[in-house]
Amino acid sequence: MNALRQARDLSSSAASPPLAETVVDDFIRDGAHLFDQPIDQHACADLLGRIRATRDFGASLFLSEEEFDADPQYTGVNPRPGRNLLERFEDRLGFVEHDPQLVGGITALLGPDYEILNKKVVCGVPAGAVPGWLKERILGNPVNNLGAYVRPQYRDVTYFYGIDFHQDLIDYKAREADFITLYIYLHPVSRADAPLYLLEGSHVLGGAVFPHNLTRIGDTDWLYRNGEHGDVVARQKVLTGDTGFAAIWHACTLHGTQPGAADHERISLRYLIAKKHAGPTGMDAVNATLKGPLSMTSTRADLAADGSAAIKSNTVLKA
Ligand SMILES: O=C(O)CCC(=O)C(=O)O
């Protein structure tokens, strides 16, 4: 029996066969699956209210320029165990972690007993909240994770002012692409709310060093090249969605965001979930179709030794 067939059989206890098949087929073709139904919208709104009540997501998040320059810290500024806002809401995450549709889809790919590697709140910061001095400094940077500039007590959330097309493998040197990202919107996300831009089909070239070789070739298509592993035409999909919108994607699928253009922050949940099951699963069937490496010893070439940006280039701004 081949790996795909085994994976489908394995997942049939947790999901109706059509969902399991659809998810695996979508991953093979697109490197992503967008769930048809939103997850519990009341629970999303409740959690959003609790997250918003923890702070003002405006300019007060940020250090002053003088404070920042006194001791610039570019690393260790993301949520981590002991400093992660979602830890406060652990007992309220059942609507995500036990949602039958999500469990079915994830099980189809990873098999039973999958492991949550990381979960956090991600904020797309609106333009009006970013101080002028900071905007000037980060203009054109590929990765505008603003953690370095945020007051230490607020570093329990990840703040983005856009991030160029990247793979989530970027944070996992030498790890195999045996994990997926689950991304959930806690409120409606329009084009103005820094929606995710996903490049469908980009995963087929496997792991690639950031920043990526992408050329726009039409309204929604990009020519993507990964060195000796070849090239592919990837279709851009903008993930606008309602409260509870949920999507999963492969660790090699390129995605990014533009800076938020709305007058309010965009709040999402981001999970990384890995395979633990010893036998073959849907993910093995997906990975067997990749034409490039499943892991890399080096994942990015955009940073200086202190973790600051060493290049100015940003492709997703042209999307
Ligand atoms: O939420 C965002 O703006 C970007 C999130 C993202 O791409 C990531 O966390 O990998």
Q: How would you characterize the overall build of this protein?
A:
23% of the residues lie in helices and 23% in strands. It has 319 residues and is α+β, with helices and mostly antiparallel strands. Strands 1, 2, 3, 4, 5, 6, 7, 8, 9, 10, 11 and 12 form a 12-stranded mixed beta sheet that branches. Helix 1 (3-11) crosses helix 2, helix 1 packs antiparallel against helix 7 and helix 2 (17-30) packs across helix 7 (100-110). The longest helix is centred in the N-terminal third of the chain and has 14 residues, at 17-30. The chain is globular and about 55 Å long. The N and C termini lie far apart (42 Å). The mean pLDDT is 93. 2-oxoglutaric acid binds at residues 122, 124, 160, 163, 168, 194, 255, 257, 268, 270.
Q: Judging from the principal axes of the Cα atoms, what is the shape?
A: globular
Distance from N terminus to C terminus (CA atoms, Å) equals: 42 Å
Largest sheet: 12 strands, mixed
Give me the Rg, rounded.
19 Å
Task: Round the mean pLDDT to the nearest integer and report it.
Answer: 93
- How many separate domains? 1
- Please tally the helical runs, counting DSSP H or I stretches of 4 or more residues: 9
Approximate strand percentage: 15-25%
Instruction: Quickly give the structural class.
Output: alpha+beta
The run of helices and strands is: HHEHHHHHEHEEEEEEEEEEH
Corresponding CATH superfamily: q2cbj1_9rhob like domain
Number of strands: 12
CATH topology term: Jelly Rolls
Q: What are the distinct ligands in this entry?
A: 2-oxoglutaric acid
CATH top level is: Mainly Beta
Helix content range of the residues, please? 10-25%
Uncertain stretches: none
CATH architectural grouping: Sandwich
